[in-house]
Amino acid sequence: MIPSQRETVIHNLLQQHGVVTVAEICTHCNCSPETARRDLRRLEEKGTIVRTHGGATTVETPFPNQSNPSGVSLLETRIALSDRADALIVTPNETKATRLLVERSRRAGVPIIAEAINYPGAQTVVSVDNYRAGLEVGRWVVNYARHYFDGRIVALDVSYPQPNTEARSYGFADGLRDLSPSQRTVFTVNGQGLREPARRITADALTVHPDINVIFGINDDSALGALDAYRAAGLDESQLLVVSFGLEGCAVKELLEQTTPYTVGVAMFPELVGRACVDASICAYHDCSLPERVTTPFAIVTPETLNDFYQRNVQTGKWSLNWAGAEQLPTASPGLGLLQKCHRRPKPNRIGYVEIFSSHEWYQNVRQAMQDHCRAIGVALEVMDASQDLAQEIHALKQAIGHTAARFVHEGDTIIIDAGVTGSYLARALRGRHGLTVITNSLPVLAELENESGITLMASGGVVRLESRSLTGSEAEATFHKLRADKAFISATGLSVDFGLSNTNMPEATVKQAMIGAAREVILLADNTKIGVESLVKIAPLDHIHRLITDMGISSHDRLTLTQRGIEVSIAEDGFGP
Q1: pLDDT reading at 114 higher than 70
Q2: Most buried one in 73, 272, 373, 489, CB count within 10 A?
Q3: Is 572 or 549 the better-scoring residue by pLDDT?
Q4: For residue 285, what pLDDT is reported?
Q5: What angle do CA 481, 486, 489 make, to 5 degrees?
């Protein structure tokens, strides 16, 4: 298929669904992911699409079939969804566009339905009972371990810091308590809910704990990425059990059919969730009384029970839900059935749906269920993908933190700058300064400052770690053991009151420890997504940190707690240029 034909297919898919993923383009165009991404870059340069995490969305206009008036930004256009929709369904995301859209919709009286995580002002939240499902699958794992692992569990929980996913992890850990403390160990890491980050963090965990015999993924991508890492490490798969939440994709269903470590999953039935969200929107449109939470069903699924809930079409390879079997599960709340009471009443004209990470099969299936249901009942569904907003927002936070950190650097200072995106922004903000000495293990920092005549630049030794573009190893550590600096600007993947400063990678953590030991003042650069997180490897206790530079997303509780522990908390200023 030639490029112009592929572009036509992409536009047709966008017209039908509002968003398209790289995987969908590959399927419809019979091309490679590299070709699909190249096509998306070309279309974005033409201004006809907006690329997102894993795909693209339309350059939306304020009204269907009308051109976009000059001067109307994409953000403004997305927020204007509140003017077009009669009800709004929101998935778990915290982007600027979503917050503004929800607030504007609330003020305009547009009913809001939350999926998975509640939003202030939402009429109800549609979700499985995450804790109960985690608890039940944890107890299932205990019975499995008693038969196959001599009753001993060393579990890796590949989690994600969101209320719904954390509830799954808490439930799973509590389910393992049928074993004595000496028989169970649980390590929790942040896999970001994505396959590649889950693979990387699991590879690091297996380096430290090769005896892990249970992997628990809070979604399918987390479980699959962790399994990729286990296989890459060449470990014995007969000594591993993989458990995941979701069971939404074809890949995990096929793994269940085969002889693999993937032996059990929690089916959350995105088909039912999508339909329930639409039905709840219709009820809210009619101002019906809705329960605080509508609980959709889940099931513990094994190779023996898979066909009770899903059947695969031998010719197409696609799986279809056994609706009757899933709808009758006792794990749903009575409120689920009550949603159908408005089916005979007038329908809203348009429902807005805000999703994030459209490349996830969970969201693809939820969206498809919504589209099918809306099409059947004659309601328009407008989809807004907030993934790009989230990526841009976090990027902007790092940039603001880096620029704010530069205010704490003074002429005559000798400073250490750690590896990481935020550190490279600090280095950029130091351009043009004089009388500074900068010591770093960061390749981007070296590139930022290599031509600065007023700055003495020192690179640590060490081995290049490509993932973080940093120098690690004994030579890097030795550099900082031999030096003394006024300030060290450190990055990390986690900061909590109980665990202190932590990181996902052991070689990086040991270099950070050496940096902290070399500095008279330690300044942590961390956006709000890192606060409250406990990563795999502890770097230092809380009292080793003198100042935290973060953003306005930090909660008042965390800010007060850290201040009471003697840490100065500085909030990054917005509005810095590139």
Answers
A1: yes
A2: 489
A3: 549
A4: 93
A5: 80
- Place 291 in a pLDDT band, splitting at 50, 70 and 90: very high
91: helix, strand or coil: coil
Q: How far apart are CA 554 and CA 569, in angstroms?
A: 10
Q: Which CATH class is domain 61-128+268-297+332-385?
A: alpha beta
- d(CA 467, CA 469) in angstroms, rounded, equals 6
Query: Domain 1-59 has what CATH class?
Result: mainly alpha
- Enter the DSSP assignment of 507: H
Domain ranges of the chain: 1-59, 61-128+268-297+332-385, 130-267, 391-571
* Mean of the per-residue pLDDT values of the chain: 87
CATH of 391-571, one of 3.40.220.10, 3.40.718.10, 3.40.50.1360, 3.60.10.10: 3.40.50.1360
Strands 293-295 and 19-21: unpaired
pLDDT of residue 173: 96
| Phi and psi, residue 427, nearest 5° | -60, -40
- Residues belonging to the chain: 578
pLDDT at residue number 64: 35
Provide the b/e sequence for 185-222 (b: ≥16 CB within 10 Å): bbebbbbbbbbebbbbbbbbbbeeeeebbbbbbbbbbb
205-217: pLDDT as tens digits = 999 899 999 999 9
Instruction: Return the pLDDT at 283.
Output: 93
- Using CA atoms, how far residue 65 sits from 20, 59, 149, in Å, is 19, 12, 61
Output phi, psi for 295, to 5 deg: -95, 120
- Cβ neighbours of residue 502 closer than 8 Å, sequence gap 6 or more: 492, 493, 494, 495, 496, 509, 533, 534, 535, 536, 537, 538, 539
155 in Cβ contact with 147 (< 8 Å): no
Q: Which CATH number fits domain 130-267: 3.30.1490.10, 3.30.980.10, 3.40.50.2300, 3.40.1080.10?
A: 3.40.50.2300
Same topology between domain 1-59 and domain 61-128+268-297+332-385: no
d(CA 106, CA 88): 10
Say which range, 280-289, 297-306, 307-316, 553-562, has the weakest mean pLDDT: 553-562
Q: Which residue has the tokens 């269940």?
A: 256
pLDDT tens digits, 478-535: 999 999 999 999 999 999 998 999 998 889 999 999 999 999 999 999 988 888 888 8
Q: What is the dihedral of CA 27, 30, 35, 41, to 10 degrees?
A: -50
Contacts of 356 (CB under 8 A, 6+ apart): 53, 91, 92, 93, 95, 363, 385, 386, 387, 390
Maximum CA extent, the chain? 77
Q: Could you read off the pLDDT of 400-432 as tens digits, one per residue? A: 999 999 999 999 999 999 999 999 999 999 999
Q: Which of 352, 363, 312, 294 is nearest to 24 (CA)?
A: 363
